[in-house]
Amino acid sequence: MFNVNLRNRVALVTGAGRGIGKAIAQGLSDCGATVAVNDIDPQTAALTAGTLTGDANAYVADVRDSAAVQTMVDQVVADFGRLDILVNNAGVEPKASILEMTDADWRDAIETNLSAAFYTSRSAGRVMKAAGGGVIVNIGSIAGHNIPIALRSGYVASKAGLIGFTRECAREFAAYQIRVNAVCPGVIETEMTAHLRQNAAQMQKWLEDIPQKRLGIPEDVVGLVLFLCSDAARYLTGQAINVDGGKVML
After folding, report:
1. Of residues 59, 155, 176, 235, which has the active-site annotation?
2. pLDDT tens across 85-96, in order?
3. Domain containing residue 229: CATH number
4. Residue 94: inside a domain, yes or no?
5. Is 155 a catalytic residue?
6. Who has greater pLDDT, 199 or 180?
């Protein structure tokens, strides 16, 4: 589907058991990469790894745990000898008003969506620095670009932070030939949005706000991720690119 050559490269994708992460893992595999499939759920991690067309292993780790992340990265390098690409995709979207949100839900959003990207980028960045280069792609959200989402303060804050982290990481890692960019999807048809898509009023509101008059699908995100991972994007770093059917224009 995508004409990108990633042969002889090893990619780690977090939260790849389902949704966008699973589609990214499949796209990387289809382009020739060896894929390390991470998820906190052993069953979904193994299922994704087992369906990929090329070499792949499943790695069960909670990316909110810095020690677990370091162990996972060490194991990927031990298994495959290198790590060229990191895609930080793992994410959660707790729903609650600011007045009703619990400390646990807030911490979960920040730890999963933002802190985990720091942990993985630190561990993978050390490997990439020693190897002379690499690519990191963070899956953000248009919510990080001043697009408000009702009752999602933890999600919005974490995604805005992720865009800021992406830019500073790109600035620091440029000296090591490591490119860092973010992909910021709009509303995508995944398990996370399935219940909302059953709401006719919500669907109408979404479509009114999207010039292309459709929701995105995971493959719409995959194409940009693969480009950013490829040599064609070799002069592109520190960017946060929207994939939203034009929603941010309105």
Report:
1. 155
2. 999 999 999 999
3. 3.40.50.720
4. yes
5. yes
6. 180
Is residue 199 situated within a structural domain? no
Helices (H), the chain: 19-30, 42-51, 66-80, 103-110, 116-131, 153-173, 194-197, 200-208, 218-229
3-state secondary structure of 83: coil
Q: Max Cα separation, the chain?
A: 52
How far lies 73's CA from each of 99, 116, 139, 207, in Å? 38, 13, 19, 40
Predicted confidence band of residue 202 (pLDDT cuts 50, 70, 90):
confident
| pLDDT tens per residue, range 94-112 | 999 999 999 999 999 999 9
Domain count, the chain: 1
In a domain, 5, yes or no: no
Residue 207 lies in a domain: no
- The long-range contacts involving 235-239, CB below 8 angstroms and separated by at least 24 positions, are 236/179, 236/181, 237/170, 237/174, 237/179, 237/180, 237/181, 238/166, 238/167, 238/170, 238/171, 238/180, 238/181, 239/170, 239/181, 239/182
53-92 exposure pattern, b = at least 16 Cβ within 10 A, e = fewer: eeebbbbbbbbbbeebbbebbeebbeebeebbbbbbbbbb
Instruction: Look at residue 157 and tell me whether its pLDDT is greater than 70.
Output: yes
Give the distance from CA 41 to its chain's centroid.
17
Q: Which helix (H) or strand (E) holds 58?
A: strand 56-60
Domain enclosing residue 222, as ranges: 10-191+217-242
